Amino acid sequence: MEYKVRCGELTPEQLAAFNQSGYSEKFIRLLVERGIDSQEKADKFFNFDPSQLHDPFLLKGMQAAVTRLRDAISRKQRVLIIGDYDADGICATAILYKYLLTQRVKTSYFLPERDADGYGLNVDLIARLNEKFHPDLLITVDCGISCAEEIKFAQSLGIDCIVTDHHAIPEVTPDCTCVDPKFKDQAYPFDDLCGAGVALKLVQAMESLAVAKNYFDICAIATVADIVSLTDENRIIVHHGLQMLNQGTVPGITALAKACNIRNAIKSGDISFRLGPKINASGRMGNAKRGLDVILEQDPERLERVIKNLLYMNTKRQELCTKIYAECVQVIEREGLQNDSAIVVAKPEWESGVLGIVAVRLTEKYGRPCIVLGGKGEVYKGSGRSIPGVNLVECITKTSAVLSTFGGHAMAAGMSLPVENFDQFRTLFQTVVTEAQKTQPVENCKYYDFEIGAEELNQKFFNEVAMLEPTGCGNPAPVLMTVLRETKASALPAHPTHTKFDNGQLKFIFFGGAVFNEILAAPCSKSVIFELQQNDGTHPQAVVKCVIPFAINDDEKALVLQRYLHDELTVTPDQDLQTIISGLSVDRSVFIDYYKATLNLVSSNNFCPSQLKLFAKLVLPEKNLFQFVFCFAVFEQLGIYEVVRNRLHIHNERTTELNKSAIYNKIVNLNQAE
Q1: Domains in the chain: how many in total?
Q2: Among residues 473, 325, 366, which one has the least CA distance to residue 411?
Q3: I need a labelling partner for 252 at 20 to 30 A (CA). Which of 53, 298, 585, 646 fits?
């Protein structure tokens, strides 16, 4: 993946627009990049007055929804809320349920199980719920807009229905009151509310803004976790919601934050990366009720049990994701799928509940839309993630003839299909994506905002960046680049795969970056691209996205090659590395030659395994250092070589089928592509 600078130099006019602000030039560049190119826009951006929230009655269907719900309240009818099993659906359910309890309505809720019930509604589910709850009124939150037939069935049972959702509008919508900000034929000025945001607007319409503000805390969790844009009214909701959460308004979130070792005030990033995934884990691993309990439960002892269960499920989810991700990469590299316009992989054993997370990691790695499918029986279920410029749900819609169900957003979607349709779906989807990219070419790259010198990373700049909070989708935390020479990096004691270092002004943490410690310590220059996250104005945290070394000598280049072979170099190889890669041989006889040479070194005790990859040329002067690093990496991946406690063990009995190594196949595919 290539990194490019996003922000150009400011024009005199842009600087003049902020000449009375006192902002630094670097901070003005961040504002302009976000479309805030005047002091007037900046004043609005930094104004969190809740009165700026939009009139909920501008949403199509809202008046009818309010009228019907008020009628249900006055007649003491039974209301059933059906939500989704992710954090957004859980929070949307919590908002509406808590509100209806204040109205003394006989209210029940149901959160589906991902495997047993699937996404949204289905006829069998509605029949079961009707038998159990006998509702007079069914209200969906964060789902339902694609369930026209299911709503029709509910109505045939005598159940009135209101759909509140925020997903893309399908060709056919339910024949009932529907509230969704994605409808085009409405006056509502903001279309990126999450499902909980729509539930909040229903409460606002039912009562007032003052009452709706009581639910900002729950809505903030969903808004961040569901990755909708943190602009417009979402920014206001999350700002005030975070303040409420930090005052302890949701005891379960306070307890969960403590269990996650969040010692400072909860920020949007904490919801994105620490709290939200725990809540989502409940639905991904089969029991969304646990996530809802964290929001609703007040008893400390019960909360303790709930949170222990959530943490356990999240750990199992992480283990499962890691396993499936590794298997996906192996399939992709072996079959050369990384060169396709879109990547589609499937395996019956893969647990469908975690495939969205796996798809995110694959999209991040390969820079193209990815769909991962799995499941039991004759049906594949799965999730996809996209890249800017490719509207995923639009592309999937064009393959609907071979799908059973589908739905989602421009960047994320879910679907199910008969296993027998897999090959047809993959071919059709890749064709659709290829055609979409013809009209809107997609750059396979990432961006950082600009380069910044060590002297500019000062307290004034940190205080200014803190003003951007809450950050996230639509208002990202700054991603900056700075150049370092050699720096001492050390693995985190409790997490040895992560590393930390500093440049005198700022402390950096690099998740999964311990493998870069040698490169960081090398005397060559390297670009460090990092996200500047804020705890508060005085204690910023720099989270490293990647390290781009400028290797000078062969030893440094060997280190870089090693990281590349193991998929740990997250940027496009420079010209030097590309030349080295193109010179690598994949001939089996060459591998046998290097294997024998290593075997002789080990047997003669004339070998230092701790320096094998870096200094192989010193002990094998007649061999090519880079070819040796390549051969060693392949043999190690195949289990023929094993380094234990700084000692090399050679397992003669292991397979020598080179094409079983993803590293070997990567170089084969690159050579063939040339």
Answers
A1: 5
A2: 473
A3: 53
> What are the phi and psi torsion angles at 342 (to 5°)?
-145, 145
More confident residue, 149 or 334: 149
Is 380 a member of any domain? yes
Print burial letters for 230-239: b (CB count within 10 Å at least 16), e (below 16). bbbbbbbbbb
Whether the per-residue pLDDT at 505 is higher than 90: the answer is: no
On whether both 168 and 281 belong to a single domain, the answer is yes
Higher model confidence: residue 205 or residue 357?
205
Write the DSSP assignment of 25-36 as a string of letters.
HHHHHHHHHTT-
Residue 336's DSSP bridge partners are: none
Residue 329 lies in a domain: no
Q: Where are the alpha helices (DSSP H) in 134-194?
A: 148-156
CA-angle at 381, arms to 378 and 387, nearest 5°: 145
Q: Is the same domain home to 426 and 473?
A: no
Do residues 67 and 133 both lie within one domain?
Answer: yes
**The pLDDT of residue 612:** 56
Cα separation, 571 vs 548, whole angstroms: 7
Helix 625-637 vs helix 588-603: crossing angle, to nearest 10? 90
**What's residue 522's pLDDT?**
80
* Residue percentage of the chain with pLDDT more than 70: 93
Whether residue 16 lies inside any domain: the answer is yes
Which of 407, 428, 443 corresponds to the end of one domain?
443
pTM for this model (two decimals): 0.84
Do 246 and 277 fall within a single domain?
yes
Q: What is the mean pLDDT of residues 316-330?
A: 92
